[in-house]
Amino acid sequence: MAVERTLVFLKPDAVMRGLVGPILNRLEARGFTFVAMKLLHVSKELAEKHYAIHKGKPFYDGLVRYVQSGPVVACVLEGEDAIAGCRRLMGATDPRKGAPGEIRFDYAQEIGRNLVHGSDGPQTAATEIALWFKPDELVTYRRAGHEWVHEKA
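The chain above was modelled as a monomer; its predicted structure follows.
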């Protein structure tokens, strides 16, 4: 497994429902390190760029409007197998198809209000991180207790 960085953002439903703390806690408790984080209102330009892969699909306009409907918490997480690991922790895109212990299954009801986004691969992660964060907003450090989470510390 390689050390990776991935973009995760908590969507407006997570922020408005007061689930920021519990969701971030699960990511951190799993052993991932936050290297960037910010609360923001997503501009139409950022929303359109982020969801550009879905342009032309029936749900595209709704996605763009939805991510702009309230504040989001955007983060960059780092760790071994961070991309797949974060996505496993988030669970199935449709919360009804997930399993107990997954963020979406435990806290969400519908695919259109599934709380959290995570990059789906290394190239997507690199592109999304560059879209949401400037290089000087990323902080590199080693968490205290790292060796108690990672065997090859």
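Helices lie at 12-16, 20-29, 44-50, 60-67, 82-90, 103-107, 122-132.
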